[in-house]
Specification:
The protein is α+β, with helices and mostly antiparallel strands. It is about 50% helix and about 20% strand. A hairpin with a 2-residue loop joins strand 2 and strand 3 (about 90-100). The protein starts with a helix and ends in a 15-residue tail after the last strand.
Length: about 140
Amino acid sequence: MKQIGLKTSITLLLTLVVSMVGSAQNGNVSIDQDKRIAQLLQIYKAVNSSANYYTVQIGFGSYDEAEELKTEADVDFPGWGSKIVFDSPTYRVHVGKFRTKLEAERKFLEVRKKYPASLLLKPEKTQYFKKKDSGE
């Protein structure tokens, strides 16, 4: 019986020592990042917020009708993102943000099964960065 007690004591002592050594490794990490990274993040956010994507218009109508349609679209196409766009005199419901025409056309075929009157909308061309004048 004394051997079991001795083995248990040694195991307990070793476990205690290992846990103390393992928990003694605390430290602080400091990151020195270039200030231009913050500027790049702002540019990235600006470009993405105003970026033009292909999208699918699934319907339009009064505000109440558009809200109802948007709720249906959120259920039918979860994760796609839907929004109501006011285009006088009606409210239009758009779903999805697709970067490429191929991706947009594939999703459009999927949407047409549920909403046959839907339309694929092309992005408007915009210029994100102004060209510097060459002085000529």
